[in-house]
# Entry
Amino acid sequence: MTESAEPVVQNAEPAPSKPRSNRVRPEERLVTEAADAALDDPAPPPINLDAPEWYLNRELTWLAFNRRVLHEAQDERTPLLERVKFMAIVSSNLDEFFMKRIGGLKQQIGARVRELSVDGRSPEQQLSECLAVVRDLVEQQRVLASHLHRLLKEQNIVLRSYQRLTEAQRKQMREFYLLNIFPLVTPQTMDPAHPFPFISNLSLNLLVTVRYANDDASGLARIKVPVGSGIPRFLKVGDDELYVPLEEVIANNLDLLFPGMVVEACELFRVTRNAIAERDEDQADDLLLMIESELRERRFASIVRLEVEKNMDPIHRGMLAAELELDEVSEVFEVDGMMALRDLFQIVAINRPELHDPSQHPLDHPKLGDKKRNIFHIIRDTGPILLQHPYESFATSVERFALEASEDPKVLAIKMTLYRTSADSKIIESLIDAAQNGKQVTVVVELKAQFDEAANIRWANRLEEAGIHVTYGVLGLKTHSKVILVVRRDFSGLRRYAHIGTGNYHAGTARLYCDLGMLTCDPVIGEDLTELFNYLTTGYVPKRNYRKLLPAPKVLKPALLAKIERETVHAKAGKPTLIQFKMNALEDRDVTAALYRAAQAGVKVDLIVRDTCRLRPGVAGLSDSVRVISVVGRFLEHTRIFHFLNGGNEEYFIGSADCMKRNLEDRVEVVTPVEAPDLQRELQQILDVQLNDRRSAWEMQSDGSYVQRMPGEGEDPRGSQQILIELAERRQKEAQRLKKRKPKGIARRLIS
# Structure
């Protein structure tokens, strides 16, 4: 718990070996001094960029990110219900970590993979170190949960055990349970006639020990706690903000399930299953059927974690571990306190504004304020528009773009990639309307968007039923790009309009994630997107000429490496240089090594990396000129920006790709140049605001640890996200001021 303004330091991840201490003289020294020194001391040997000590571990740096998220829950400056939110986020993240990353490591161990990771660790080493970090995080959560419980109680938000309810309250909850939940509860006994039941992923379960009153022999039964489908984890008692966990209501009314029997024990447990169940696409005759089959297999996938309540009977604990084929020492986690803290999102939703961050409402983009004017005319006449979500409205920009495309009689075709979307997606409705209005509509649906496969299958079927041409992308590649292409018959002929973004077409996450998008009618970008969709809908890979876009997997990585090398060459020639990347993750070994080489040449490198980062900044002779920060705030940072000084002819790019091997080599991504000077200034403003953050930014040290920045005397105490909220408000006010000053009575001829 941080209560002072002292910097918070996160421990570095353990390293396989220590870095060398060789130092390269700073380039700022006078040439004569360097020459004299060279006569006396031989130049240090070059640093071997293949050495594992220069690359941090992917899994451990991702867990370090969750330490930073957990710190937001520990930080007294964070409003109380927001603290609960961050604790729930960490719990949810750890569930996903076990399902994906721990599951993957266990598969590697099972397959006897001997290849070491880039950072020199075997799968066994990674698993062991990850589990140790997870146990520490869980312990921090336990301590924090108890503290937040007390703070909530002070605010009259109470989570109470069933036993501490009054007699009248227990009677009320028993009646509610009997009417609304009891019919959904199904006990399953375990004996020779009833084998060990299937335990679903992330479900809460009660292990009940029962016996007949006149019999000493006891038996076991499993009860699944039916959270979901409208049944909350925490049941409200009366009119106040008093809640009792559902599992406790069930556990204290077992006489309804086992009438006339003696209940000797009731113990809570929870399992996590491996989410990796991918098949070889090359062997699949029907990709849709293959994904549906994978989903069925995932439901029955191997278990990677068992959580049990503290003081569970050791015999029962061992029995569960044996039945679930788990190692009781390393794969069973004893939980002292509440299990499945992710369910606290229910408490976070309580309407107490004073316990939340100040309300933030996305604003209309200043250029899109005129709702009566055709959005395609606006884009054509004003030039490209940069959208900053969640500061600027997704509904009045991206959803409006799709809606007007569906209704505009001059629009002939709409093409779109779909990775994730919301259950009530207005964009999907617009696409269906467009097809019904006789427009040609094509949607590339990614069926393998993890944990959204079932939803995307449903969307694909619904779109096809509406007469939309649905394809599933290129065999062997995930389509992760976020693009919409609209073909419209303008006064001068066909013109292509596009939206290219960093985030999903999901109205919900557009309120919670920081993302960028660009609306444009640049003819070259339009031609490039036509090439891209021809590739996505056919899978054919002839030489495709992209003049502006940098799509993965063929173009993006070589382009990034070439641009990094160009800055390196400029630095060696004594020219000013700068590389600035903002992304979710820097995991690709080749990009990391290229940035090291650039830094060794003297290139200044600024990296704003949300979570996984392999690069170690500030290592003498290797990365002296590199700084790495991570921003954690009320919104999830999801933006990708790439900036190169390029000898003064600056280049800016935004897009869907992180610098991860999977994004650069195994996915279809789209990164677009942002060439308009006013849009470039907006991007630079975002970078500058975050690089100067003294509230929400953490700075990585050379050993891989992080130190939270704190505002010094006279420095701005606001976090970068708050500043960006206020900048959006300022832009809107300025646009309204200029609109009022605009002379009236001047007719404008609108050309369609």
The CA atoms of residues 737 and 743 lie 12 Å apart. The mean pLDDT is 90. The longest strand covers residues 261-273.
